[in-house]
Amino acid sequence: MPNNTELFETLHADYYPMVNQMCLGFMKGNKALAQDLSQETFINTWRALDKFKGASSYKTWIYRITVNTCLKYIRDNKLKNQASIDEYTQLPDDSTDTEQEHQALYHAIGQLGEVDRLIIMMVLDELEYGEIAEVVGISEGNLRVKIHRIKKSLKKILV
Amino acid sequence: MSDLLDDLKNKWSDAKGGNPKHPSAEEVINLSKKKKKGAVNMHIGNIAILTITLIGISAFFIYVAPLQEILSHIGIALMTGGLLLRILIECYSTYRSTKLEISDSTAVSNEKFLKFYAYRKRIHGPVTISILVAYTIGFYILTPEFSTYFTTTQVVIMDLSYLLAAAIFGFSIRKGIKDEMRLLNEWKGLNEEIANG
Q1: Which residues belong to the signal peptide in this entry (chain A) (predicted)?
Q2: DSSP element (H, E) containing B175
């Protein structure tokens, strides 16, 4: 059985891209803020490692920590109403079409409410509805209603 | 609608590509330890400052100025009692903050944060204001006996200086309450968003 440090190294290596992308979506494509937020998420993961009971998979557990860290981070850092993350992050002129497409996706997700933003990112990550409901702490029925409404909002944003 | 979702899923998966540059696991662990140490030192520092103030005031009234009148004893009790209460609250707040769990589900974690910030708002608001009022009353109750040992000018300077210090402290309480109110309202809003969407 690996010790905590070895286990953390594995989790960090396996889940950093997933966490960072969620943070990017939450921070509307702002890479610097997303990197800081990802780091904060893994600091919280390291601190909570002793309390992991194995009731869910590590993936679901890290999603929970990521979601809670995102929601806490913008409040602690007074970023909720700041223009820095609300504004569309400008890409350099030489950015590729693909980069601009990704940025547009983060921007569209960024226009949703905080919780909706996190839910749709887990949907896009192909997490099971049951797992998303467990992460957020709502019933699966309630989650389905929310997802339906989020999809409609996204359609409006993207048209 | 499912076409839109499939398209978004493809774009999302495509955007994930690569492993962005980031600190190593070891660096994150070291940073975590450093941050924890900083937070613990901050709490210990606050408690130490309050404790030293309490010891200083107590020593002053025991060894330097052992006031005799009952009214003065009540004043000293209000001042030291208020400080002692503040120290106990600080210790309890530190303990409560360690009980916040970031790996709970969002709804549960949010509920805990909401309760914590409601508690903090009470502490920074009515409780701290009451302690300041008690301390102020205690301080001014000492004036009659002080005036028998000091000149009127010295007593007036002392009383006015206290007023200035209390005003500065009052402004800092006001700022604290405003911050706690903002956080509390934001967590409440989030709670509603989770429950009702």
Answers
A1: none
A2: helix B152-196
